[in-house]
DNA sequence: GATTCCATTGCAACCGGGTTGCGGCATATA
DNA sequence: TATATGCCGCAACCCGGTTGCAATGGAATC
């Protein structure tokens, strides 16, 4: 576990460093895709659900992670790509297969952003396409 | 209540007509925007939650209505625009204000659809932008 | 007309993700 | 050392959604 890297990043975001916050951030950074609260609970079995919850809450408020609602009923979390700021450009496309109920993370397809009516300002985008994935289409 | 119109539409979709289904469909058609299960429960106080739930399930399966997950924790329902088929073109943009927690239905902005990798086929799009709405921006 | 069958519905209970109150412990501040 | 503040675990709670089951009712069959 890269303790140092986590500590630095928390510092830079102005988040007080604690052992649990390091654990959670480390797990998120190591994860290949997104992680749900339940995923983190499983991964960090010594840490209480509510602590993880509150940690994620803080991370999100400080734009260290962002959440994706893929419509499966459990919100997913992901470390923001850019080190210093979490921009809308970080938001990419997700695909949910209605057959096998898996969520795919299409990292290289960034979520489109439409022109909004006067007065609306966007801070994040939740873009999820539902349909049938390749392997379910074949079989 | 336009009983006839509802009955016809149910018929055309191959959905067996029942009093409750007429009530639910009528409420949805009359609604200015989207409705949640809870909204319908309030509107149709004589009808049980589970009955509404199952009715919506059937409606959705027959592509008479579609659901939108706006990230508020309660799924919204909406009658498909086109009479005969519910196409992806029906899906429009939704905006969720992080300050006042309201969901706006931007009916005239259709949800964009990105090119998916080989093998993925899209059946619906869930596109929701989060940010600050005009009245909250004003302060 | 009587009987059988199956879809529909209401009720109540359940489920699971998320959230909160609170008390204890640790850490910081005076 | 005394005092405040923040962090954490536990347990309980909340709420939207979902399911099992029994009763009802209408259509199909005898």
List keywords for this structure.
homodimer; 139 residues; alpha+beta; Arc Repressor Mutant, subunit A; 34% helix; DNA-binding
Mean pLDDT of chain A: 86
Largest sheet of chain A: 3 strands, antiparallel
Strand order of the largest sheet of chain A: 1-3-2
Q: How big is the Rg of chain A?
A: 16 Å
Please write the CATH class name of chain A.
Answer: Mainly Alpha
| Approximate shape of chain A | globular
Unreliable stretches of chain A, pLDDT < 50, 5 or more residues? none
Count of folded domains of chain A: 1
The oligomeric status of these chains comes to homodimer
What count of helical segments of chain A does DSSP give?
A: 5
Largest interface: chains, residues each: A-B, 35 and 33 residues
Instruction: Report how far apart the termini of chain A are.
Output: 40 Å
Structural classification of chain A: alpha+beta
Order of helices and strands of chain A: HHEHHEEEEEH
Helix share, percent of chain A: 25-40%
Might you state the CATH topology name of chain A? Arc Repressor Mutant, subunit A
How many DSSP-defined strands of chain A? 6
CATH superfamily of chain A: Winged helix-like DNA-binding domain superfamily/Winged helix DNA-binding domain
- CATH architecture annotation of chain A: Orthogonal Bundle
């Amino acid at each position: 576990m890269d303790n140092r890297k986590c500590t630095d990043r928390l510092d830079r975001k102005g988040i007080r460093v604690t052992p649990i916050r390091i654990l959670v951030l480390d797990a998120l950074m190591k994860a290949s895709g997104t992680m749900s609260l339940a995923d983190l609970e499983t991964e960090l079995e010594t840490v209480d659900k509510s602590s993880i919850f509150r940690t994620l809450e803080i991370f999100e408020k400080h734009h260290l992670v962002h959440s994706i609602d893929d419509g499966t009923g459990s919100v997913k979390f992901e470390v923001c790509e850019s080190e210093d700021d979490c921009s809308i450009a970080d938001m990419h496309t997700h695909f949910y297969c209605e057959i096998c109920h898996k969520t795919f993370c299409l990292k290289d397809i960034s979520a489109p952003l439409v022109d909004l009516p006067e007065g609306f300002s966007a801070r994040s985008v939740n873009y999820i396409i539902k349909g049938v994935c390749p392997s379910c289409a074949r079989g």
